[in-house]
Write a structure and sequence with these properties.
The chain is of the alpha/beta class. It contains 15 helices and 27 strands.
Length: about 500
């Protein structure tokens, strides 16, 4: 089996697969374009098992490159195009990639990352045949990777196999009710597992049409896309739903085409759920998945959602709770670390045997998330078992941000925490002490500028608060709970 064949065979050949402002591409045309990209990679010496890093915006070419690589048995790795040169370079070197595909806008940053085999998008498929026999792949052969943040600040690659394609349509069909007649729009970018699972793989295997928006998503732009291209199913994150409501974007019938809204990436506050339903008349179906599972293992059903919960176990998934010591928890109401099992669980982390051994066991994955269940089988997120923060659907390692703040020379101490804003969504707040007083009133701006030189944008906190010293325990450990309380109280006082 080859996962690319399973996905691209999901629709009628002449049915629309990808829809943009400029073009509509049928399944037949996408299949042909994927063959051209696959042949282009073969012509450059890329073959079975070779990794291919993709740095592109959300365009049909990205989908063609992704499936073209899978078709020849290579392994596509879509990374954040806003990554710094050092982060892109790390992914290339860590994966031992054979090639890197970048569109022109990102080639300068890519080339700064090192002397890589950089293939320009517009030349990769030029003059290549649109006929290509897929490489025969076993279900457990590598199909694609997804990089996710690690607890040490070093990204780790979750290895996904061709087996994931066999269940790609389970959740979108059985839980979200997506059919071949739907247009599906995922507002998150394609380097997210959320989008790979429910757009690149799930929607196409269902035979639906996928709506694409190339630029980085802004609420006003998303409303314009929805109004113009009329998706019927929309996957997004709580941040967007809150911003859309606050800015009045939902008014005027722009979202009239959407019959179902899904949310993931971070917990949706009950107040926000209620606000959205009151304004639009439609509920938001919340669920949770990870980079290691691709698809949701918990999700609410549209006809009986429970606000504030991550939902119930999805078809084909299993979940269980354990204490930090590994003892089983089987009583509703008790909080423990969630493990999940489904056919799309990653085979492990690339070149990281210790992390793999800690997180993967007999087909089960340790999510690191704390959960509890109720008597009705609904599951509720209760935070993390480690210090990782999840902001707007992206992981942030506090240690990484704190280290960069101190290395800037502008402060001697730094601690990053997450605190809820007025709508209950978590936002990063950086507390610093022992500051370089020579900077004076420019301190905050100088530190933000310094952080943007070494960190991705989503890791750079806008809220920086200065203390004389950080609160610590008797053993010298930073009391993050006190900083979180400070952040909450300071916001309330503003």
């Amino acid at each position: 089996m080859n996962g690319a064949d399973l996905i691209l065979a999901g629709g009628r050949p002449d049915a629309p697969a990808l829809v943009t402002h400029d073009t509509t591409i049928s399944y037949r045309a996408l299949d042909a374009l994927a063959c051209q990209y696959g042949n282009g990679l073969l012509a450059r010496g890329v073959g079975r098992g070779d990794r291919v890093v993709i740095v592109m915006d959300d365009r049909p070419a990205l989908y063609a490159a992704f499936f073209g690589a899978m078709r020849i048995g290579a392994v596509p790795i879509v990374v954040n195009p806003r990554w710094s040169a050092s982060e892109i370079g790390f992914a290339f070197e860590d994966s031992q990639a054979k090639a890197l595909i970048a569109e022109p806008a990102y080639e300068p940053n890519v080339r700064m990352a090192g002397d890589h085999l950089c293939v320009a998008v517009d030349t990769l498929f030029a003059d290549q045949s649109d006929n290509l026999k897929s490489a025969a792949m076993a279900p457990d052969d590598m199909a694609f990777w997804i990089y996710t943040s690690g607890t040490t600040g070093t990204p780790k690659a979750a290895i996904h196999t061709h087996r994931a394609a066999t269940i790609a349509d389970k959740t979108v069909k059985a839980v979200h009710g997506v059919t071949a007649e739907d247009r599906v729009f995922v507002t998150s970018k394609t380097f997210f597992a959320y989008t790979i699972g429910h757009s690149v793989l799930g929607a196409l295997k269902t035979g639906a049409s996928v709506v694409l928006h190339a630029p980085w998503p802004k609420p006003g732009d998303i409303a314009e896309v929805v109004s113009a291209l009329k998706p019927s199913v929309m996957y997004s994150v709580p941040t967007f739903y809150r911003t859309a409501l606050a800015n009045g974007i939902t008014k005027g019938g722009a979202f009239a085409s959407v019959r179902r809204y899904i949310s993931a990436g971070e917990r949706m506050p009950v107040a926000l759920y209620d606000w959205w339903q009151a304004v639009t008349g439609s509920p938001v179906v919340e669920g949770i998945g990870t980079s290691e599972t691709v698809f949701m293992f918990l999700a609410n059903l549209p006809d009986r959602p429970r606000p504030g919960s991550a939902g119930r176990v999805t078809p084909g998934s299993e979940v269980r709770l354990e204490t930090e010591d590994g003892a089983p928890i089987d009583r509703p109401g008790e909080i423990g670390v969630l493990w999940t099992k489904l056919e799309s669980v990653a085979a492990g982390y690339w070149n990281q045997p210790d992390r793999t051994a800690a997180a993967f066991r007999d087909g089960w994955f340790r999510t690191g998330d704390l959960f509890r269940s109720d008597e009705d089988g609904y599951w509720f997120h209760e935070g993390r078992a480690d210090d990782m923060l999840k902001i707007s659907g992206q992981w942030i390692n506090p240690v990484e941000v704190e280290a960069q703040a101190i290395e800037s020379g502008l402060c001697g101490e730094a601690a990053l925490v997450a605190a809820p804003d007025v709508d209950g969504l978590e936002r990063p707040v950086l507390f610093v002490a022992d500051i370089n007083k020579s900077v004076g009133d420019r301190f905050g701006d100088e530190l933000r500028t310094a952080l943007t030189q070494t960190l991705s944008r989503h890791k750079c906190p806008k809220d920086i608060q200065v203390l004389e010293s950080l609160p610590r325990t008797a053993t010298g450990k930073v009391q993050r709970f006190r900083l979180r309380d400070m952040a909450v109280n300071n916001k309330e006082a503003r």
